[in-house]
Amino acid sequence: MWKRDEAVRPASGPPAAPQPTTQTAASPAPRQDAGQAKPMEHTVNIGKSVVIKGELNGSEDLTIEGQVEGTIQLRDHVLTIGANGKIKAQVFAKAVIIQGEVVGNVTASERVEIKDNGSVDGDIVSPRVAIAEGAHFRGSVDMQRKGAPGAQKPAAASAPAVAAPAVQKVGA
Amino acid sequence: MGLLDRLSARRDTDAPVAPVVLDTGVPQFPTKALRKLLSSLTSREAPVLLDLGPVIGSNLSFFGEQLGCKIFYEDIYAELDRYVKAGTLDELPGYLGRRFTQADASVDGILCWDLLEYLDKASAQVLADQLTRILRPEGSLLAFFSTIQPRDLTYTKFIIADESNLKYRTYPAARGRQAVLANRDIIRLFAGLRVSDSFLMKNNVREILFRKPSYEVR
User: Fold this and answer.
1) A80, B4, B172, B185: most buried, per Cβ within 10 A?
2) What is the pLDDT of residue A24?
């Protein structure tokens, strides 16, 4: 059984908050002291001025404040689209948190959250989807349960051709 | 029992006259058709829904939990506003005829809410034809119709509290309701569907659940 609060809570804080991280050169986020007691969390930031066209793959959590066009794949990690982020891409990740703009289909094996200023034009496939009041969304949301006969096949003409996710319950 | 009889047969005797006003100031009214819609969809595996209203996160979660479904969002209220503000309402029927890209008979359930009351006759007919086209045989369509015509320029967000209650949250609209539709007009609009259930609620809302027969209605 899902515990909603626990699952949603990590996204409520500032996603681009500076952690002891691997940073790209474009990210202006300050580093913290290495001696802090917090465990290391690997989050990469893509700063406001960065524009990427093509395929973006990774095995770390990623925060995007810049622009990306193409494909983003973080299969086992969390992708956060910051308030300044503008994405025109197909997105695949474990969890996707959207505060900026996304044009394209979003597939997450765990959850998708569109925050109150977030915007998505595209289809979402995820077992858990949370859309805040004030968020913009246009498209379809596929929360089909794993194993459902229709889960693997597009049900309508505009359905995205992506695999169905794994978990059953959806939180607020 | 004829179609008109079905429309007028059931009166909601349990509903209170005044809405329950929650702490948030949002009035809450009972609903009977929503439960019927859900029960018609739970027997289907991985149903596909179409919601013609604005995206409401809690409704999305509700349907996800209850049905594990796929939901298409097509906020026609927003499109109507756009056409009213641009002064191009005469182009709306053509737009509605092109808007729905879903394949024929591909949707299990449609949440039409009270949209039809805000449309003029031509747009309402095009919309009804499109919805009939994309609804699967034995699929259900939920629509609300008022028995009075409020003059205020507001739309209503129907927020699902539970399967027996809806919160009515209003927000500004570019135009008001156009007319109170008589039962015979409603039946004519959805000539390809049959009325499965109809509830006249004490808040002056007729909740009608249409069902697409597996045979063609003539």
Assistant:
1) A80
2) 43
Interatomic CA distance for residues A33 and A27, integer angstroms? 17
Is B164 domain-assigned? yes
**Distance (Å, whole) CA A94 – CA A89:** 16
Q: pLDDT digits over B163-215, tens only?
A: 999 999 999 999 999 988 899 999 999 999 999 999 999 888 999 999 999 86
Q: Is the pLDDT of residue B154 over 70?
A: yes
Which strand (E) or helix (H) includes residue B86? helix B76-86
Distance to chain B for A141, nearest Cα, Å: 5
Instruction: Provide the pLDDT for residue A146.
Output: 56
For residue B37, the enclosing domain spans: 3-211
What residues of chain A lie within 8 A of the CB of B48, using their CB?
A: 150, 155-156
Contacts 24+ apart (CB under 8 A), B127-131: B127/B76, B127/B96, B128/B189, B128/B190, B129/B192, B130/B96, B130/B97, B130/B99, B130/B100, B131/B50, B131/B100, B131/B190
Tokens of B2: 């004829």
Interface of A with B in 20-59 (CB under 8 A): none
Structural domain tally of chain B? 1
Say what angle helices B92-99 and B76-86 make with each other, to 10 degrees: 150
- Summarize pLDDT for B66-97 with one digit per residue, the tens: 898 999 999 999 999 999 999 999 999 999 99
Higher pLDDT, B148 or A106: A106
For chain A, give every domain's residue range.
Answer: 1-10+42-172
CA A26 to chain centre: 20
The shortest CB-CB distance from B102 to any of A139, A145, A156 is to: A156
pTM for this prediction: 0.76
In one-letter notation, the amino acid at residue B88 is T
Residues recorded for chain B: 218
Chain A residue with Cα closest to B45: A148
Q: Which CATH number belongs to the domain containing residue B16 in this structure?
A: 3.40.50.150
Nearest to A149 among B46, B101, B106 (CB): B46
